[in-house]
């Protein structure tokens, strides 16, 4: 009679491959694990050598304590570690690697060669492993420390290898992990080479110097020291001045007991401390180290070890917020008043009535000085000086007209817009029944709090979300640009040089075609610098660096969405970001222009993300509201 038992123990090789799925997700995971092992081995110098962003080779060389012959063999066994001995050790961990999974997982999905020697030994140990199978173990002459060579990652798991991104994307992840470990341990020297090109050469220094070595000399002027010591935790590190806040994320680092962590709650504490000093949507720079008794935290949550739990999160939040606020105050990071400026120049004199609500034009000094040759005629000229400024009083209207022009229209007269609205209305009325028709050309239009547009329609009131409407319009415009690669570019009179991080520069290389399709014109200048020569003609007026940084931030977010193709994802992201700029007061002409463009789009009812743009309140609904 056949056995009914169907459960069996998996072979070690398969179990290791399953474990590798959690620990080794991409080349950056291998770099992180091996660098942290080198730190645990008390190395003072760590070299990282890559080929093809780690696909074909990841080599990590350290001058740490090395391993004996027995330890070298045991290090590749699952759950074999020198970091913990008993369950209580899990609650006082101060080392980086402690699970005993990293080397076993790496060896299960790659071809591994390790050379290691302790200082007291004459010869070291060489071990070669292919897919968890040990091929060679022998004595070899080698320097003190450990040398790992990881070749052909995922060679025996083709499905995992196919899921790797392009070299530029994978290199960005490697750079992120490298920089985190380098920041956490400024007392250790690190070098990074990629395809025989030196990317980093960091000597052992203090933390402030390590930040400058990684991110550039421009950071020298923006760093301020932050420190707060309590009986529960100690906080130290550096924050950036508010005026140096950037539009891109990624330069915010928390380290707990020298371990990099991601913690949204603590990030909110820092942002709250900067409240009122940085513009909305900007991100301050910070590198903060938290020293805490390991018994108060739990790091045994996820194999990546970037998540952590505190036993008293509220206290940690309050202490971090207080430390950053104190640094902002002590170093006077908020913008100060320029006492050399004549602050009374634009204000009424004490003898004048208080007419602050009435816009006034200030007469320049040269207009008040009569020419001697003009004689008595100069008096009459003085009385008519304001004619020089005719046409400038309605600057607000001119800004509105300019906004209409930026949205792809001209400042035509009202009847022209009425004819356009009639055309659009007739077109929309022929659309499917589920689509709300455009208001009539002579319908009453009203803007509410620069946010909503109200219009009278046949059977009630139409409410249009102004920001959502612009999001739909911008989305279709950007998508067309990316597909046709024909974005209009406005040349800059003076090119602007901006500096990016290494990972952001890798992203620019990866998406160069898309960026230029939108209308940006730029050239590389040095290792991590760009010269911006032109910007898209239809973007809101802002500094070139802020615009480019916002674009990079949107590129980062759009790349995380794997469900959409590149033009679709990027168009959605950019439209959502820049539509915020159009929450402004609109003129009659601009409202009609907005409605024309909205009802000419492919779907005027919803944003690209599916959120409603239009809500129709019928007469019946309004009656029910008043009836209660």
Q: Proportion of β residues?
A: 15-25%
Morphology: elongated
Total number of beta strands: 22
Structural class: alpha+beta
Roughly what is the average pLDDT, rounded to an integer? 77
Number of helices: 19
Residue ranges: pLDDT <50 for 5 or more in a row? 333-380, 387-396, 401-434
| Rg measurement, Å | 32 Å
- Tell me the distance between the termini: 76 Å
Order the strands across the largest sheet as they lie in space: 5-4-3-6-2-1-7-8
Largest β sheet strand count, sense and barrel closure: 8 strands, mixed
How much helical structure, as a percent, in the residues? Answer: 25-40%
Explain briefly what this protein structure is.
Residues 444-586 form the MutL C-terminal dimerisation domain. With 628 residues, the protein is α+β, with helices and mostly antiparallel strands.
Throw out a few tags for this protein.
alpha+beta, 5-stranded mixed beta sheet, 21% strand, 8-stranded mixed beta sheet, DNA damage, 19 helices, elongated, 628 residues
